[in-house]
Amino acid sequence: MTKGKLFNRVLRSAASMLTRQGFHVSEERYSAAYLKRYGFDINTFIDVGVYQGSPVFYELFKDKKFVLVDPQPDTMEKAADSVKGLNFDYIQSGAGSAKGVATLSLEGPSSSLMKRRDWKRQPEKTVEIQISPLDELLENKGYKGPFGLKVDTEGFDLDVLKGAEKTLRETQFVFTEASLRRRFEGSYRFSELVAYMAEQGFEVADVIPHRSHNRLVDVLFVRSDSSYLEPNAVPVRMVGSSGKTNNQS
């Protein structure tokens, strides 16, 4: 028996045992190894809402051009280790549907331009920032498509996408954090996000749940006319109660 087959047998045995104890066992989908199966072929990756970086995508597209968009003044200090060795540009700005000034509540990775409904505490610090449509921030910079786009802006995600309609026309996929519950005052409903992306020619290809709660998920949108929506385009190893693995789309 090869090492690979032995390893898979051990995994199946462990997964079966955990399932019998009431645990759900599935493949880690927020990983470069999993997302690589889609075969995305882009020239530029745009990361909106950087904070400490997006290592999964930096690994996946390490030989591509990166555009990092974030308004926080210490973004490059926090993301220094993640972006080391990458070919990137940093744009210090907020992104939204229109140009203006807004108040950003500084809460580390949970920093937001929206007022929270799910937290009772007040933000420790706020800062005034400039906001511009992503289309304007990228305009005349010579960035080459097709693009990959990641948006993680704590409830402001749909607003960011509404300011990126021109960019979306050259975008192969969009990976965005999405609220399932109304976590912020005046924020979107999940159905509104899906409907807007459908209007832009995108469909949901994958939904990755949060590990510890169901208030939000990560959603992968791909172009509705692309091959990435075909059945079995990305085989997922799921482990059932019998311990057997099956390929599912």
TrEMBL record:
Methyltransferase is among the record's keywords: yes
Keyword line: Methyltransferase, Transferase
Transmembrane segments: none
GO molecular function annotation: methyltransferase activity
Methyltransferase FkbM domain mapped to chain residues: 47-203
Alphabetical list of InterPro entries matching this protein: FkbM_Methyltransferase, FkbM_mtfrase, SAM-dependent_MTases_sf
Pfam families (alphabetical): Methyltransf_21
Gene Ontology biological process terms from the UniProt entry: methylation
Record protein name field: FkbM family methyltransferase
Source organism of the structure: Ensifer adhaerens
